[in-house]
Amino acid sequence: MNTESRRRTIRRAAVAGQRPALAGVFALILLTSSTLAQTDSTFVRLDPTNTTSGYLARLLINEVPFPGERAYVSEAETQGAMVEILGVLHSRLRQVPAGYRQEHVAGVRSTDIIDIICGTGEKRQCEGFYRNDTGQFVAAPRVEERLDYLIKIANSGGKPGRFANLLNFGQGLARAYAREGIAGADRYARLSRIGRTPVTGRAYSWMTDVDSFHPGGNFVTIPNSDEGSLGGNRFFTLRKTPK
After folding, report:
1. How far apart (Å, rounded) are the C-alpha atoms in residues 233 and 60?
2. How far apart, in whole angstroms, are the C-alpha atoms of residue 172 and residue 224?
3. What pTM was computed for the model?
4. Phi and psi dihedrals of 241, rounded to 5?
């Protein structure tokens, strides 16, 4: 599908109306972000790309489907995918299991979530997110182009709808993490066995949910029975004992 066709599809899907966000803390994140964004009749405003909260929000939003796009199911599923992607980043940063080194799981050794997103040199971790020649963390033009289009839809009409809800959720989640660290429970944290394979629990990788895609090595696919597929993404945990 070319860019214009994709945009027409998204535009047709951009109908008004809201549905509740995730319960508890995530509902509060969404409500707070939406309220702040609407103070001047603008429903969505993201933090600058050169801030941790703005850069992280762009990654979370870039990696999930919006209404009219392939793999979109519901607001709740897209929000859930954002939460678990953040969980992967946090696990790579702060929850490396015994028997593993951070470089083996995250491809980099660092205490900075920006490095977890960007990787180092040619070893990029998240497609479209990298440091430029001067060391600034940037997003590829295609990432910003899609984001601008989603924001344009979200800020049109007389009241915030699904696009505004999802964009504000992603930005609110990123702001909360930048301030206070991981918020809420990781749905994969309690996993101890997948099939006959003992696993560490938590997710340490995600990829587009296509059967042939797998990060290889010690990563173990989290099955549908454990909600391993969210928002068009497949999540992976690790073997309890590395090979």
Report:
1. 12
2. 27
3. 0.76
4. -115, 115
